[in-house]
Amino acid sequence: MVALNGSSVQELMKVDLASTSVRELNAELHAPTARRYEVHNPRGAEAIAVGLRHAIEVEIHGPAGYYCAGMNMLADVVVHGSVGTGVAENMMSGSVRVRGDASQSAGATGHGGLLVVEGSASMRCGISMKGIDIVVGGDVGPMSAFMAQAGRLVVCGDAGDGLGDSIYEARLYVRGRVGSPGADCVEKEMRDEHVAELGQLLADAGLPHDPGEFRRFGSARRLYHFAAHNSAAY
Amino acid sequence: MIDPAQAGLRESATFDRATIAAIQRAAETGVYDIRGWGAKRAVPHFDDLLLLGASMSRYPLEGYRERCDTDVVLGDRHAGNPLHLDIPITIAGMSFGALSAQAKEALGRGATEVGTSTTTGDGGMTPEERGQSKHLVYQYLPSRYGMNPDDLRAADAIEVVLGQGAKPGGGGMLLGQKISERVAGMRTLPAGIDQRSACRHPDWTGPDDLTIKILELREITDWQKPIYVKVGATRTYYDVKLAVAAGADVVVVDGMQGGTAATQEVFIEHVGIPTLAAIPQAVQALDELGLHRKVQLIVSGGIRTGADVAKAMALGADAVAIGTAALIALGDNHPRYADEYAAIGSAPGFYDDFQDGRDPAGITTQDPELAARLDPVEGGRRVANYLRVLTLEAQTLARACGKAHLRNLEPEDLVALTIEAAAMARVPLAGTSWIPGQGF
Description:
The complex is a heterodimer. Chain A is mainly beta. Chain A has helices spanning 22-30, 192-205; strands spanning 10-16, 34-40, 57-61, 76-80, 95-98, 114-117, 130-136, 150-155, 159-163, 171-174, 178-181, 185-188, 215-219. Chain A is built from two helices and 13 strands; from the N terminus they run E-H-E-E-E-E-E-E-E-E-E-E-E-H-E. In chain A, the strands form two sheets. Chain A has an eleven-stranded mixed β-sheet with strand order 1-2-3-4-5-6-7-8-10-13-12, with helices on one face. In chain A, strands 9-11 form a two-stranded parallel ribbon. In chain A, helix 1 (22-30) links the parallel strand 1 (10-16) and strand 2 (34-40). Chain A is elongated, with a radius of gyration of 18 Å. The termini of chain A are far apart. Chain B has one domain: Aldolase class I (TIM Barrel), CATH 3.20.20. In chain B, strand 11 (227-232), helix 7 and strand 12 form a beta-alpha-beta unit. In chain B, helix 2 packs across helix 14 (376-400), helix 9 (275-288) runs parallel beside helix 15 (419-425) and helix 10 (306-314) packs across helix 14. Chain B has 15 helices and 16 strands. Chain B is an alpha/beta fold. The chains are: A mainly beta, B alpha/beta. Chain A binds chain B through residues 22-23, 26-27, 30, 46-47, 50-51, 53, 65-67, 70-71, 73, 85-86, 89-90, 92, 104-105, 108-109, 111, 124, 127-128, 130-131, 146-147, 149-150, 166, 168-169, 224-228, and chain B through 29-31, 34, 143-144, 147-150, 152-153, 173, 175-176, 187-190, 193-194, 196, 198, 202-205, 209, 212-213, 215-216, 219-223.
C-alpha cells in the first residue's frame, strides 16, 4: 500500500493507483485507517471502492471503470469523472456522486442510499432498483428502471424508450421527454406528496430544478398477475 | 368404466392421454401450464451406463475393510478459503419462497451433519439457513432479490447463476400464492403478486462483462470466497470454456432433468440437454484448458442414487448436487399424503405443482400450517441419512472398481447399454470398443 500521507489512523489518506493496485486500495477501504480518502489516477480501472461498509468518504479523481462503488454501504463516494457500467450497483446505503456521465446499469438493483449522476446515464439506469434513490442531471438511455421494484428515479433531462418496463412500485420523475413508457408503466398524477419528495431529492442532489417541471411515472399494476388477456403486453 | 386394454382399444402414441389432457386444459384456460419438478420425459441417463467391476485385469478393494475416501476441495483455484467437504454430494440451490423456511433449515441441518454444503436461492439468505449450514453457498442471481453484501460476506462460496437445467434461458417465477409477507419483504415486492425473476443479469451482458463481475465479487470478498458459475446444460462445451475464462473457480452444470419450483411445462420438457450429454462436454472443455480437477465441476440434474454419483464422477465430475431427490428425502410425494394429494388433483409419485403452495408435505409452501408439518430437525435427519446412503453406495461401487477415492473413478470404468448413451457419455457400448462418433 502506498499511502502518501502516512499509514496509521488519520484524517486523510491519498492513494495513487498509478503505483498501488485496486486490490490494495479495496483492502484498505474494507478496514479503513483513515476517515477520508483521495484516489488518484484511477484510469478507468474496474471495481474501485467496491464493498465498502464503513462511514468513510472516498473521492476518486478521474474516470472509473465497471462497478465503481458497487454494493456500497454507509460510505460517501464522489467520482470526479465518468464511470463505467454498474456504478453503485446494489448499493445498500450511503451515497455515490458522479460528476461526469455513467455507462449502463447505473444503480442497478440498489436497495438504498442516493446515487447522483450529474451528467447523463446510459441504458438500463436503475434496472431492478429495490429502494435506491437515483438522480440524473441529464438524460437516461432506453429501458431505464426496467422491473424497478422500489425507490425513486429522477431524470432531469430526457428518458429513452421503454422507461419503467414491467415496473413494480418504484416512482419515476422525468423533466424532459420520454421516448415511450414500457409495458405496464403509465404517467401518473403529481400529487402534493410527490412534489414534496421530488423537491427533497433534488435538494439532496444539489440540482436547482423546479419540481413542477417534472412528470411522474409508475406502475399501472395490470401485469401483477399472469393472465391470458395480458399476453399481448409482453 | 371399461378397461381400454381389455376392450382392445388403441391409444395414440402421438396424441396420448397426457397430450390430450394438455390440449384440453389449454383450450379451457388460455394459459400455458406451469409446474415444478424437472423434465419427466425419458432421456438417456445414468441408468444407461454400467460400471465395470474388477476381476482379473483390475484389483478390487475390500468392501468392509479398505478405505474409499470421499472428500473434495472446491474452489482452490483463486479463493483464499476453498470449501473442504467430506462428501462430494451437495445440496443444490433452492429458494426460500419456493421452499418453506423449515425445509431450508432442514436441508442445512442434513448437509451439515454429513459435512457437505447447501445453497441459497432466489430471494436471499435466511437466518435459519445460515445458522444451520456449516457450508453455505450463496447464489448470485439475475433478480438479485434479497441480495445483500453482508450475506455475500457471510457465505462460504458464491454461485453466479446464469441458468438452470430446467429452464436454460428462462427467468424465474413465484406465483402469488407463495408470496407471503416475509417472502415479499425479502424480495422488496408487494405481497400476493405473481413475481417474475429476470433471465439476464442486470449489470452485465456477456462473458467479457462476467469476467469483470467476478473480479468485483472477489474484491468485495477480499479474494476469500470460491466463485462458482452455474449454467443450464445446452452448449455446455462453450459455456464451460467461457465460464472458466471469466475466472470461475467451480463450474456447475445442471442437466435438463434438474428441478424447478415453477416453470412452463413446455420449457421444462423441450429446452436443454440431458445431464449425461453435458458432462463429457464440460470435461472436454476443462481438459483442453488444462484445468480439469483444478477448476472443479459440479454436476446436477437427476442424481438419485450412489450409482448416479459414481457414474457422474467417473465421467469427470468432482462433485454432484441434488435438489429434487433432497425434497423427496424430506417427504415430498410420500404415500402418507395420498388422500391430500387426491384432494388437489394429484397423487404420490406424480405431485409437481410446487408453484401453487399447497404442498401436503409442507415443503414447497409458505402456508404456515402446511409448513409446520415439516420438523426441521427430523427433516435434517432424513436428508443426512439419504446423503449417507448415497455416499455408501458410491463407495461400494468405487471399491468394486478398485478405487481408494471416489475421484479416482474414470471413464474407463464405464460402458453404455444403448448406442445413444454411448454417444452422449463417450464410453463404449457394453461388450464392444465402439464409441459412436469416435470411429471404429
